[in-house]
Amino acid sequence: MAIKIPPRNIVRVQLEYRPDESPAKPARVGLSGNAVHRVVNPKLADTATFYEIPPGETEVTVTVDGAPVGHRRATVAAVGESTIKVQVATKRRTILLLGFWPPTDIGISSRHGMLWKWQSLQQDYEGSGYDVLAYSPTFFSPTYMEKDPIPKWGKGSGTYTVDYRNMSRQFWRIMAKHTPIAIMSFSRGNANVSWELEAAARNLAQAHWKLLGLEPPYAGGSADDNSPLRGHGTKPELPPDASLPAGAKRLSDLPISSIIAAVANLPAKVNPYFDDSADVGAYVSEYMAYHVAWYRDYINAKHPTEPQLQCIKAGHTHVGVFVPVADAEAAVETQLGVLIANLPKVSDLLR
Predict the structure, then answer these.
(1) Residue 251, SS3?
(2) H helices of 40-163, where?
(3) CA angle, corner 304, sides to 279 and 68, nearest 5?
(4) Domain encompassing residue 42
(5) Bridge-based pairing state of the strands 2-5 and 10-17
(6) 142 and 124 in one domain?
(7) Are residues 101 and 240 in the same domain?
């Protein structure tokens, strides 16, 4: 990051780590620029370096570990008359996995769901430099209808439930807590072994969501809304997202074709395919699918120059009712690997 500094003889470059992001990664901080010279002093602390600069306003580049900073994970600020402060974040970004009805849930000790492996924070997952964490409702015992092999799990309990209003409230709380770099949501789909990657989800009018005993979503922008647009005013037909009209779509930007190819190569009972209809069912799963893409677009628009806060990828997958949990977990692992391969390298995030 090039910055201009006014005339000075000696400039102190101070490296600081944000107090909530530890342990700190050792780093070298420096300046580069025309006729800029380091002042050698063995008594200097490891995190402070002094430089002599030429007279007149000079443009210099601050570097950390030899790379220019100011991009993604580092910020630069001129402080006082003779100090440039560099703040470097070292905390890993988090990928969130969100599930609903089995087999897409975390599960319980006596019945694992496909997200069980990620029920607690997986730090530096598979050496990727990213942390991975899953959330889902908790489901205990299903019920069955006569001659219907599909289990009925109800709303569930826990962090969020299969409920429009509860899910939205908890969703925005979870996003604020983690500020994820990517989100993949999952929900139960057709009565088969499908792995259905959704192209988009819809900002449906309030009257167009299926209720099946649930209260409808709150009108976006209303006083009851749980999103950041609460109180900003509603749109005609009262969709949940007051920033777009009813019926508008938000797109998945997961690497869908690569995911399908990778999952198709698994020795697992899973049939991956792409659904470009944007009809995600008009139930709570589509509501979640819309939320993950909505959060990505919202946070990126809010922080256009702060990539360390942005969400790079988000999308939704429907999982067939009869996909065995072990096969579903293998497909999640594979999909996660493809996602990570399409995220920025962690070394780039630390620049």
Answers:
(1) strand
(2) none
(3) 130
(4) 2-88
(5) unpaired
(6) yes
(7) yes
Contacts of 62 (CB under 8 A, 6+ apart): 1, 3, 13, 29, 30, 31, 68, 69, 70, 76, 84, 86
Same domain, 222 and 187: yes
- Same domain membership, residue 247 and residue 164: yes
pLDDT in tens, 232-258: 999 999 999 999 999 999 999 999 999
pTM of the full predicted structure?
0.78
- Cα(205)–Cα(44) distance, rounded to whole angstroms? 63
- Total tally of structural domains belonging to the chain: 2
Encode pLDDT of 89-111 as tens digits: 656 789 999 999 999 999 999 99
CA atoms within 13 A on the CB side of 117: 15
Q: Are residues 12 and 161 in the same domain?
A: no
pLDDT bin (cut points 50, 70, 90) of residue 3 is low
Which residues are registered as beta bridge partners of 76? 86
DSSP state at residue 190? S
With H, G, I as helix, E, B as strand and everything else as coil, classify residue 343: coil
Taking the C-alpha atoms of residue 331 and residue 111, their distance in angstroms, rounded to an integer, is 18
Tokens 């069912």 correspond to 281
